Structures are given as structure tokens and as C-alpha cells.
């Protein structure tokens, strides 16, 4: 077919170096003339190249060669693997060209400032844009309370170690939770108490007992699209958690790392129920944009200002000016809102497909979590299957998932939970991947049953 000739010709040009990573491909009009074909034929060829992750499109700009493409052999390898492991945003949906434009503009706008040390708190004009952006997430604050950080993980890591006005010492956190935060607690030698996240959220009565008796200075929570379960607290639960924090003098660190993806306009962050400073709001741009930006923010009370700025200065003096300026322009131009609309639709479709596949294929003895618009989900394996056993099986089947054990405190450790991320998986491969996971569970259970049968009576014959 003619469109396949176009595909082969474009791949050949890339592999021969005539088209390099980042280069713009010939326009649709130009190829219709070169191949004497219709526009639909060229469009079909470019769509096929996008599916193979060889090129990506930029609206109103054109098609470009994907960075890091290494030829036909690498593409076949990538196509053979179903990657539920990688947790970064879909690299083929990222706004490379748009943000490159913003970087260039930032160089022009802030070329003088790049030769000096910047404000530790962050570029003021960026904080003005961030304050406007946060209003869309129901976070109403002023630029003076916003602190730009080198990735939200930096804010979490610094805040864990700071003395808080309540004079308390211990941390309470959801179980399981973001592995980076658990590592921060280990690095600082902090005492931590966990509270389990189930399909119905957390036990608020148990949380009250922890607040009341365990000298809790800070409760860390991912209020929506929880990592790794994908769970989101209800507005009622968020309000009640804030009330408990007020009653027992506990601070809340609300990690809203993917709040931008929430299409539910009625979903409020915990910050909305107490904007005075009891709730510290932390947000990242890594999962919805480009992880390499290393940009995030924290909304802090004035009582933590001096201690936090000293800690930030000791960590890296200030967040890089160039990326701050580029994000400011990206937000100001309206490009971010257009990008987020696309991301919401894409992840919502993928999450729905994943939940449907779970329901259709996972055996009844396995459990699963997640939402219809979340980024992550977990699968609980039936006893006595261990996650490592399934990971080994799946690796041989070219399916990658994550072991969730590093996301638990020692007292909550589980070795039968895997985490799935939908970000890097093509929509058409989601169900196939879940089918292979289900087949792996069934096979491991079958092997275990055979072992048990033999161990009970070595002289008996196995069933026909």
C-alpha cells in the first residue's frame, strides 16, 4: 500500500541521518506532491509513524523525529514490550516544541538575570503566574506564600526536617506511599507512623488516635490520584482530615502532584478547607509536563518562612532561572492549559481501559485499585504468590511492572503488591498487558497447587 511506502521512506531517511532527532518532517502538502498521493494517505503514514514512537506531532507546527530514536531494531524492541513500569509522562505527548519556544523567549527576557544569583524563593513574576494558575485548582493564595522548588521532592525533603510551630516531632503518612518520601524519612532518621489506604480511603478514627497520642507534627497525604494506588479522597474525607489536624495541632503536607489532571471541578484540595497555613500545599510539574524541568512549588505559612529559606539556600541556593522563566511564559501564553486538556483526555481514556481490563481478566482472588482518571493502580496478588515471582514471569513475557515493596514502611511491608502506571503504554496494548498479568497469576497459582499436591502425598498420582 502506498502509505507503507511513505512510512518506509521516512524510516530510511531517519536511519541514514537525513532526518535527525528533533528535525521537522516534510509537510503533508510536500509529500502529496513527492508521492503523487492524497493528503489522507500521507496523514495515515504519519499516524503509523507516531504509533511506532518514531515521530511526534506539534499542533499547528508539524511532525518531528522523536529524540533518542535508534532505528528499526530499537523500534521493534519497544513495540514488543508493554511498559507498566515507567512512571514519567508519556514522552510522545510532551510539548517539546512549545516549551523550546518558551526557553528561547526566557533567554531573551532574562539574559541579564542569568548572570546573577536569583531570589531563593523563586522568580517573582513566575510566582504571580503560579498564584493565578493555582486558583483553577481551588488553591487561593498570594505570590508571597509561594516557594518555587527544584522538583516537589525537594520541598518534601526539606520540610520533613524543619522544626514546626507545634513543637512536635513525628511524621504520619499513608501506606503505601511515594517511595521518595519514605526515603526522605529514612535519611533524616524520623519516627514515622503509617495509616493504610484501602479502597475506601483511610480509617479516620485510627487517624484521630494517631494525631491524639503519637506526637505527630506532620501528616503527609496524596489527596488525589494517590501514588501508588490511584485513590482520591472524597471532599468529606478531606474536610474531616483538616478538622482533625486543627483539633490536635497537626500540620498537613498535601502532595497534589497531579491535581492538574483532575477533571472533576467539584473536587477540592485540603488546602481549600484551611488556607491559613495548617495545610502546606505542594505541587509538581514533572508528571504532567517534562520531568527534566525539575520544577515544583510549595505554599507555606509565614511561620515556616525563615527556616525553609535557610534550608533551601543550603540545598541549592535557588532553582534554575532559565526553567523558571520558561515555565512563566508557558503558563502566561495559555499553552499549559491546552496541553493539560489533552493530557486529561489521554490519561482518562487509558485509565478507563485499564479498569475495564482488570474487571474482565484478573482472577477473583486478585484485588486491584485505581480510578477512571488516575495515573497509577495497584494489583494485590493472592497468597502465596510473591510479587518477585510474578515480575520474573512477566519479564519473560515482555511486560514490565513495578514491585511496590519500597513504598511501605517496615511495619506495613507487603511482598505481594505490584504497581502499574499507564503513562507509557499504548491504549491498544493495555488489555493485552493485563491479560498476560492475569495469565501469570493463574500459572503461578497452578504451580503452587501442584507443589502442594506432591508434598501432601509423594506416592499419590496427580489428577488426570
From TrEMBL:
Cofactor(s) essential for the protein: pyridoxal 5'-phosphate
InterPro entries: Aminotransferase_I/II_large (IPR004839), HTH_trans_reg/aminotransferase (IPR051446), PyrdxlP-dep_Trfase (IPR015424), PyrdxlP-dep_Trfase_major (IPR015421), Tscrpt_reg_HTH_GntR (IPR000524), WH-like_DNA-bd_sf (IPR036388), WH_DNA-bd_sf (IPR036390)
Pfam families: Aminotran_1_2, GntR
Taxonomy, superkingdom: Bacteria
Membrane-traversing stretches: none
GO function terms (MF aspect): DNA binding; DNA-binding transcription factor activity; pyridoxal phosphate binding; transaminase activity
Entry similarity comment: In the C-terminal section; belongs to the class-I pyridoxal-phosphate-dependent aminotransferase family.
Name of the protein this chain belongs to: PLP-dependent aminotransferase family protein
Annotated organism of origin: Paenibacillus hemerocallicola
Upper lineage: Bacteria, Bacillati, Bacillota, Bacilli, Bacillales
Amino acid at each position: 500500500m502506498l502509505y507503507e511506502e511513505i512510512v518506509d521512506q521516512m524510516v530510511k531517511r531517519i536511519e541514514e541521518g537525513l532526518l535527525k532527532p528533533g528535525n521537522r518532517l516534510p509537510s503533508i502538502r510536500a509529500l502529496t506532491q513527492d508521492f503523487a498521493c492524497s493528503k489522507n494517505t500521507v496523514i495515515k503514514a504519519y499516524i503509523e509513524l507516531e504509533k511506532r514512537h518514531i515521530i511526534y506531532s506539534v499542533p499547528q507546527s508539524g511532525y518531528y523525529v522523536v529524540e533518542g530514536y535508534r532505528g528499526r531494531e530499537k523500534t521493534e524492541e519497544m513495540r514488543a514490550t508493554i511498559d507498566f513500569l515507567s512512571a514519567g509522562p508519556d514522552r510522545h505527548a510532551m510539548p517539546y516544541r512549545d516549551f523550546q519556544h518558551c526557553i528561547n523567549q526566557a533567554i531573551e527576557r532574562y539574559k541579564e538575570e542569568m548572570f546573577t544569583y536569583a531570589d531563593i524563593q523563586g522568580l517573582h513574576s513566575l510566582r504571580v503566574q503560579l498564584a493565578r494558575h493555582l486558583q483553577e485548582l481551588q488553591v487561593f493564595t498570594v505570590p508571597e506564600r509561594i516557594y518555587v522548588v527544584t522538583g516537589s521532592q525537594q520541598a518534601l525533603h526539606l520540610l520533613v526536617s524543619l522544626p514546626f510551630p507545634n513543637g512536635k516531632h513525628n511524621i504520619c503518612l499513608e501506606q503505601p506511599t511515594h517511595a521518595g518520601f519514605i526515603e526522605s524519612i529514612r535519611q533524616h532518621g524520623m519516627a514515622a507512623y503509617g495509616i493504610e489506604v484501602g479502597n475506601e480511603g483511610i480509617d479516620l478514627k485510627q487517624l484521630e488516635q494517631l494525631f491524639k497520642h503519637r506526637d505527630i507534627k506532620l501528616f503527609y497525604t496524596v489527596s488525589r490520584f494517590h501514588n501508588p494506588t490511584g485513590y482520591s479522597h472524597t471532599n468529606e474525607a478531606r474536610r474531616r482530615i483538616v478538622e482533625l489536624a486543627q483539633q490536635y495541632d497537626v500540620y498537613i503536607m498535601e502532595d497534589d502532584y497531579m491535581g492538574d489532571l483532575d477533571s472533576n471541578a467539584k473536587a477540592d484540595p485540603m488546602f481549600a478547607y484551611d488556607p491559613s497555613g495548617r495545610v502546606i500545599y505542594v505541587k509538581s510539574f514533572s508528571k504532567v509536563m517534562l520531568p527534566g524541568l525539575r520544577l515544583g512549588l510549595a505554599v507555606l505559612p509565614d511561620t515556616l518562612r525563615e527556616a525553609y529559606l535557610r534550608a533551601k539556600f543550603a540545598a541549592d541556593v535557588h532553582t534554575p532561572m532559565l526553567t523558571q522563566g520558561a515555565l512563566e511564559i508557558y503558563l502566561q501564553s495559555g499553552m499549559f492549559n491546552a496541553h493539560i486538556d489533552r493530557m486529561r483526555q489521554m490519561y482518562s481514556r487509558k485509565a478507563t481501559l485499564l479498569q475495564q481490563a482488570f474487571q474482565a481478566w484478573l482472577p477473583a482472588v486478585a484485588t486491584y485499585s485505581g480510578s477512571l482518571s488516575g495515573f497509577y493502580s495497584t494489583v494485590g496478588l493472592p497468597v502465596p504468590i510473591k510479587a518477585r515471582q510474578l515480575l520474573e514471569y512477566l519479564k519473560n513475557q515482555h511486560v514490565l511492572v513495578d514491585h511496590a515493596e519500597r513504598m511501605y514502611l517496615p511495619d506495613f511491608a507487603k511482598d505481594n503488591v505490584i504497581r502499574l502506571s499507564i503513562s507509557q503504554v499504548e491504549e491498544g496494548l493495555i488489555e493485552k498487558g493485563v491479560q498476560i498479568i492475569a495469565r501469570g497469576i493463574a500459572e503461578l497459582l497452578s504451580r503452587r497447587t501442584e507443589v502442594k499436591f506432591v508434598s501432601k502425598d509423594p506416592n499419590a498420582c496427580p489428577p488426570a
